[in-house]
Specification:
- Regulatory subunit of serine/threonine-protein phosphatase 4 (PP4). May regulate the activity of PPP4C at centrosomal microtubule organizing centers.
- It holds the Pfam family PP4R3.
- This protein has 36 helices and 13 strands.
- The strands form four sheets. The protein has a seven-stranded antiparallel β-sheet with strand order 4-3-2-1-7-6-5, covered by helices on one side.
- Among the domains are: about 110 residues, Pleckstrin-homology domain (PH domain)/Phosphotyrosine-binding domain (PTB) (PH-domain like); about 120 residues, no CATH class.
- It is elongated.
- A hairpin with a 3-residue loop joins β5 and β6.
- The longest helix has 21 residues.
- The chain is an alpha+beta fold.
- The C terminus is likely disordered.
Length: about 850
């Protein structure tokens, strides 16, 4: 079995007319009892399994191509090919086939290819007409030759006969000599005939003729003939392009003359197929199948020859990563690898596997890491294309590399972070490169293509790595654009070397403080677009949309990793700031992110949304949209309709209790009335359950109802305030063992809110940078403010003179003197009014009219 003469690759032709590699093995010709005849057997060299068992049928047409290929059809749509490593092995098997069929081994085709209709005509032909008589190859016979070649294309038998005649008489070379004569004489008519003749010969679809036409001696004259299309007023200049414009660049000198010749030939034949020949019609699409196969096998041979020359590849990698290599040389090296990887796509999976393993062993990923960070746009673009080939073929290989790299390098220079940086820094106004890189990142973080073995799980390991080392880089533009912290923004811009225009800048101060008896128009819901950072630069908005698309993908596929991240960063609140963008597509991306979260129907997320009052920006957007019937309107309505249909009780109660007054006027859909109905039905059910319990069990002594629990919760937060004197997260319940709430979320929010409260003593309190709240007031005039879209909850005044009008420790804290609502933070200076809170008739404010 070690005999390399018999070593072959087995190919089958698929529905797309592409050759599929079925494996490598050793071929033999033996008698098979079951098939009752001599058969070709191919056994795999890896495990000895049978790759092919094919009886040599006496009537099957076998073709020998390029000295090392044998091609035949076993059924109407089942073509097979054996590609031999050595010519001697091909000749040996060819003799066996010819022996069975009683043919001379010198022929290239053992049978005429005929169909049933042709068989009948063939039987009627006189025996003397086995070959076609070709006219003498002279200038005055060109029209006759052209008519003959054109006429045979519709008949498989006549095509075969003409091909044999052309091959036996060396006719093609004689025709090309006539072409040179016609061109010297400027014989336009003759040149037009030669175009038809050469085009017709290509459509004969014969490999033996292609070998003559595409030889170094003939190919440029063939291209010359194809320049003179009679349909064109002026001939094309294809030869000028191939000889002068198209330059063959040897990044490293290729010493193998056969390899160099094969590269030249493949490029020129591909040019003929793609550029010169017109797109074949539906009736001609199979005429060039052999030409496609010719190019395919050439590419396979080129990749194999280069792959086996490790000295050549090692030298390429050494120069690519050498700091002394000049920019022009490095650009050529990267373009070579790009072309090399493109050629590798002709290989079948097992061969591609070996190809990419060779590149990985030589260090392709560390080399890409270097070149992707370079300033040259062409180099970065080519490196991105190479990276895409690697990711598409084996994302696990890339993931394994970056996880090993993380143990030795800083986060800033990790390959994935370099990719994210390239995505963020894309200078293309349409972000073409960023879209491509986003797709690659999505493939890398997709759990569907991650492997699970008995010893380790790639999914958990890689996602832990990604969220620890890379997620902060991905979300940095989003957090920067929804933050009022200028220092954070400056750091990010400096760190990532790019410039964004922030059209809507943060408002850190107001020209006047809001009197306790009235509310500033700026603080009314629906009128706060000037107070919120919104990335209204189009390129920035596109980038944020891409980032949100990735984060939405994470919500769907990453469960607890993204859940912890959203809580730690209060990410949904930051994302919903983008509902204020003037770019509707960005507002829709933010809404889609929230919709995916709600679509999970996870009570953990639902608590986060209700306690943070995160429906408010969505409802603001709906009200600001007014009566316009557009995609934003439909998307918001669909969000609430989903909650109604799925009967998500906690969200339904929150929406009805806090926002129904603002939404009840929307009657063109029944969504909000439906939510109110669901809420009231659930409330009735709860009351019935309560009434069915004996009165002694309803006593607070034995049963703690929701109100009692809420009072205990407030007492717990009050105690924390008295002990620590700090702002704490008021509405969030203390984590229970069964909750998934992150341990450091409360500390994170404490620190964040305490820092913000220092500078905002006299300002309207806000729940988070860029956040905004429904405005509450004791003033009836404020409740009926000038903005018809404002939503104002009415809270009964705690005192008649208004001297002490603050209400603390509500699920949504109310501070009338400061003219704004604080959602998550209780301030220490509110402690003195705890007693007044106890006398308040309601714990959760209801929306007024």
């Amino acid at each position: 079995m070690s005999d390399t003469r018999r070593r072959v690759k087995v190919y089958t032709l698929n529905e797309d007319r592409q050759w599929d590699d079925r494996g490598t093995g050793h071929v033999s010709s033996t008698y098979v009892e079951e098939l009752k005849g001599m058969s070709l057997l191919v056994r795999a060299e890896s495990d000895g399994s049978l790759l092919l068992e094919s009886k040599i049928n006496p009537n099957t047409a076998y073709q020998k191509q390029q000295d090392t290929l044998i091609v035949w059809s076993e059924a109407e749509n089942y073509d097979l090919a054996l590609s031999f490593q050595e010519k001697a092995g091909c000749d040996e098997i060819w003799e066996k086939i010819c022996q069975v069929q009683g043919k001379d081994p010198s022929v290239e085709v053992t049978q005429d290819l005929i169909d049933e209709s042709e068989e009948e005509r063939f039987e009627e032909m006189p025996e003397t007409s086995h070959l076609i008589d070709l006219p003498t190859c002279e200038l005055n016979k060109l029209e006759e030759i052209a008519d003959l070649v054109t006429s045979v294309l519709s008949s498989p038998i006549r095509r075969e006969k003409l091909a044999l005649a052309l091959e036996n008489e060396g006719y093609i070379k004689k025709l090309l000599q006539l072409f040179q004569a016609c061109e010297n004489l400027e014989n336009t008519e003759g040149l037009h005939h030669l175009y038809e003749i050469i085009r017709g010969i290509l459509f004969l679809n014969k490999a033996t003729l292609f070998e003559v036409m595409f030889s170094d001696e003939c190919i440029m004259d063939v291209v010359g003939c194809l320049e003179y299309d009679p349909a064109l007023a002026q001939p094309k200049r294809h030869r000028e392009f191939l000889t002068k414009t198209a330059k063959f660049k040897e990044v490293i000198p290729i010493t193998d003359s056969e390899l160099r010749q094969k590269i030249h030939q493949t490029y020129r034949v591909q040019y003929i197929q793609d550029i010169i020949l017109p797109t074949p019609s539906v009736f001609e699409e199979n005429f060039l199948s052999t030409l496609t196969s010719f190019i395919f096998f050439n590419k396979v041979e080129i990749v194999s020859m280069l792959q086996e020359d490790e000295k050549f590849l090692s030298e390429v990698f050494a120069q690519l990563t050498d700091e002394a290599t000049d920019d022009d040389k490095r650009r050529e090296l990267v373009n070579f690898f790009k072309e090399f990887c493109a050629f590798s796509q002709t290989l079948q999976p097992q061969n591609r596997d070996a190809f990419f393993k060779t590149l990985a062993k030589l260090g392709i990923l560390p080399a890409l890491e270097i070149v992707m960070g370079m300033d040259d746009l062409q180099v970065r673009s080519a490196a991105t294309d190479i990276f895409s080939y690697l990711v598409e073929f084996s994302p696990s290989m890339v993931r394994e590399f970056v996880m090993q790299e993380a143990q030795q390098s800083d986060d800033d220079i990790l390959l994935i972070n370099v990719v994210i940086e390239q995505m963020i820094c894309d200078t293309d106004p349409e972000l073409g490169g960023a879209v491509q890189l986003m797709g690659l990142l999505r493939t890398l973080i997709d759990p569907e293509n991650m492997l699970a073995t008995t010893n380790k799980t790639e999914k958990s390991e890689f996602l832990n790595f990604f969220y620890n080392h890379c997620m902060h880089v991905l979300t940095a533009p989003l957090l920067t654009n929804t933050s009022e912290d200028k220092c954070e923004k400056d750091f990010f811009l400096k760190h990532y070397r790019y410039s964004w225009s922030f059209i809507c800048t943060p408002s850190h101060s107001h020209s006047h403080s809001t009197p306790s008896s009235s509310i500033s128009q700026d603080n009314i819901v629906g009128s706060n677009k000037n107070n919120t950072i919104c990335p209204d630069n189009y390129q920035t908005a596109q980038l944020l949309a891409l980032i949100l698309e990735l984060l939405t993908f994470c919500v769907e596929h990453h469960t607890y990793h993204i859940k912890n991240y959203i809580m730690n960063k209060d990410l949904l609140r930051r994302v919903l700031v983008l509902m204020n963008s003037k770019h509707t597509f960005l507002a829709l991306c933010a809404l889609r992110f929230m919709r995916r979260i709600i679509g999970l129907k996870d009570e953990f997320y639902n608590r986060y949304i209700t306690k943070g009052n995160l429906f408010e920006p969505v409802i603001n957007a709906l009200l600001d949209n007014g009566t316009r019937y557009n995609l934003l309107n439909s998307a918001v309505i669909e969000l609430f309709e989903f909650i109604r249909v799925e009967d998500i009780k906690s969200l339904t109660a929150h929406i009805v209790e806090n926002f129904y007054k603002a939404l009840e006027s929307i009657e063109y859909v029944q969504t909000f009335k439906g939510l109110k109905t669901k809420y009231e039905q659930e409330k009735d059910r709860q009351n019935q359950k309560l009434n069915s319990v004996p009165s002694i069990l309803r006593s607070n002594r034995f049963r703690r109802d929701a109100k009692a629990l809420e009072e205990d919760e407030e007492m717990w937060f009050n105690e924390d305030e008295e002990e620590e004197g700090k702002a704490v997260v008021a509405p969030v319940e203390k984590p229970k063992p069964e909750d998934d709430f992150p341990d450091n979320y409360e500390k994170f929010m404490e620190t964040k809110k305490a820092k913000e409260s220092e500078d905002k003593e006299n300002l309207p309190k806000r729940t988070s940078p860029g956040g905004f709240k429904f405005t509450f007031s004791h003033s009836a005039s404020a409740a009926n403010g000038t903005n018809s879209k404002s939503v104002v909850a009415q809270i009964p005044p705690a005192t008649s003179n208004g001297s002490s009008s603050k209400t603390t420790n509500l699920p949504t804290s109310v501070t009338a003197t400061k003219g704004s609502l604080v959602g998550l933070v209780d301030y220490p200076d509110d402690e003195e009014e705890d007693e007044e809170e106890e006398s308040s008739p309601r714990k959760r404010p209801r929306l007024g009219s």
